[in-house]
Amino acid sequence: MLFFVQSIRDESDFSLVEEIYKNYNNTMMYTAKSILKDQYRAEDAVTQAYIKIIEDLQNFSFENCKKTKALVVIIVKNICYNMIKGEKRENTVPLEDFEDITAEAEDGPLDFAITEENYNFLLSCLSKLESSYQDILSLKLFYEYTDNEIAKMLDITPNNVYVRFHRAKKALIEEIQKRGSGYDKI
Length: 186
Hints:
Layout: H1 2-6, H2 11-36, H3 39-55, H4 65-85, H5 103-106, H6 116-127, H7 131-142, H8 147-154, H9 158-179
Helix pairs in contact: 2-3, 2-4, 3-4, 6-9, 7-9, 8-9
């Protein structure tokens, strides 16, 4: 990793990476160790995360501490999951298999103007979804990354991002509908 840090020529970029290290390295290590259950593999995962962050430094926004923490944790988690999967990569599911997603899912709760109350309700529903769905929805909706940017971060194809996003969106809509409580208009 030292090589990559030394390859940073811009002083502001170097300071930014140094700040990320100071503020989030322990969180990144904790996340990696909790998933991988091995100190050395966790260190490898965190190093890979730093490499990914350094390579795409200009594509990330690090202005908000909570968003930065969430972003580095998502990156580390996905690197860990990829390490666990090993060399075997899942085949991308053809999009034609998912054309039957209802129009309701396309025009559902994610298309409304988010008020603070709706935002808190949405976060509550989001927290009930599985982690991979939370990650893809957060990156797409809250951080506003494109499918290509997310694909690069998660080391998957843009088509896979599209499929996962629609599955996550459908699961979120089901969670919102399950809770009901006056959110029929959403």
